[in-house]
Design a protein that fits this description.
Helix content is 37%, strand content 16%. With 341 residues, it is of the alpha/beta class. It folds into 2 domains: 244 residues, Type I PLP-dependent aspartate aminotransferase-like (Major domain) (Aspartate Aminotransferase, domain 2, 3-Layer(aba) Sandwich), CATH 3.40.640; 88 residues, Alpha-Beta Complex (Aspartate Aminotransferase, domain 1), CATH 3.90.1150. Strand 2, helix 5 and strand 3 form a beta-alpha-beta unit. Bound molecules: 4'-deoxy-4'-aminopyridoxal-5'-phosphate (PMP). Its EC number is 2.6.1.9.
Length: 341
């Protein structure tokens, strides 16, 4: 593997940028009078949240066995994707690489930042062709590769992720939004080995906290300092920070959430196998299924008529709808409508 100097990958103006720092961030007080931030002295939520998210980071550091300085907290992992693009990709000059099909927001934030979006088409099993990856990386020289595993919307995990981190001359972001459902090992344990690695996780899926909008990035201290430099002050609100900090201490709750979802996944998979209009249910390591239908437009319309909202993926993935698992009564309703088609 090539020796990495992360600084060489960072946009020049970002290297020189000073982060916003509040005096409160780096000091402790016994009985402070806060007259520094133009807040109201009255009300329940009158104070700004901790911009450094210290308490949450310290708890996560123990949970994930990393240093608190290797953690960035975002307003959803969406915000972190945006920050990563902003740190490394020079508008107009640089490109990002993403799998195709994969999570659309990588391309969205790159486009907002005026970066080229290079797409690496997946093979028929939705895996990556290594030769194709090496060729396209070499030709396009993208700064950042977004590798999503398990991948949204296909549901499969990507094999041999180390190969891609090792053979990419830029930053590799492994998006593990659905990792808890997969039973696979997180790439967080590879952080010591690969200075160009960023791992994204979220509280929106297995943790059942999408409404709180909290996502996490794990990386080297150097990379985390850079994302902190470009983030907005107070980017995560106090209600969410408190709620998530509380939740982390309640491991039983998350275990229960995941077990419940996994039960429903296996129940739904069995039921789906009995439905006539289904051509194929693709293997999934996530909390959703990519399903190929005989007559996808009719199925989608029929589901909508019954107020069952799903995510149509065709024509990009021909004849396919992505459907995530719900509660038993919701899954039952889905199955009944599908049976009636
Ligand atoms: N990554 C992937 C792969 C996703 O599917 C999603 C949400 N659909 C996100 C990131 C964004 O998650 P968050 O709610 O943390 O912004």
């Amino acid at each position: 593997m090539k020796e990495f100097n992360i600084k060489d990958l960072v946009r020049k103006n970002i290297q020189e940028l000073q982060p916003y720092v509040s005096f409160r961030d780096n000091n402790t007080f016994k009985n402070p009078v806060f007259l520094d931030a133009n807040e109201s002295a009255f009300g329940e939520l009158n104070r700004y949240p901790d911009s450094t998210q210290k308490e949450l980071k310290e708890k996560l550091a123990v949970l994930k066995d990393v240093s608190a300085k290797q953690i960035a907290v975002g307003n959803g992992s969406d915000e972190l994707i945006d920050l990563i693009v902003k740190v490394f990709c020079e508008p107009k000059n640089d490109a990002i690489l993403m799998m195709n099909p994969s999570f659309a927001m990588y391309g969205f934030y790159a486009s907002v930042n005026e970066n080229k979006v290079v797409k690496l088409n997946l093979n028929e099993n939705f895996g990556i062709d290594k030769e194709k990856f090496l060729k396209i990386s070499n030709e396009e020289k993208p700064k950042v590769f977004f590798l999503c595993s398990p991948n949204n919307p296909t549901g499969n995990s990507i094999e041999d992720i180390e190969f891609y981190i090792q053979n990419f001359e830029g930053i590799v972001v492994v998006d593990e939004a659905y990792i808890e459902f997969s039973g696979k090992k997180s790439c967080i344990e590879l952080l010591e080995k690969f200075p160009n690695l960023i791992v994204l996780q979220t509280f929106s899926k297995a943790w059942g906290m999408a409404g709180a909008r909290v996502g996490i990035a794990y990386a080297s201290e150097e990379i985390i300092q850079l994302t902190n430099t470009v983030k907005s002050p107070y980017n995560v609100n106090s209600l969410s920070l408190n709620k998530i900090s509380e939740l982390i201490s309640n491991k039983e709750f998350v275990k229960y959430n995941i077990e419940n979802t996994l039960n429903e996944i296996s129940w739904l998979r069995n039921k789906l196998e009995t439905i006539n209009c289904i051509k194929k249910v693709f293997p999934s390591d996530a909390n959703f299924f990519l399903i190929q239908f005989e007559n996808v437009d009719k199925v989608y319309r029929k589901l909508l008529e019954n107020e069952i909202l799903t995510s149509k993926r065709s024509p990009q993935i021909p004849d396919c709808i992505r459907i995530n698992v719900g509660k038993r009564e919701e899954n039952n309703k889905l199955i009944n409508v599908l049976k009636s088609i």
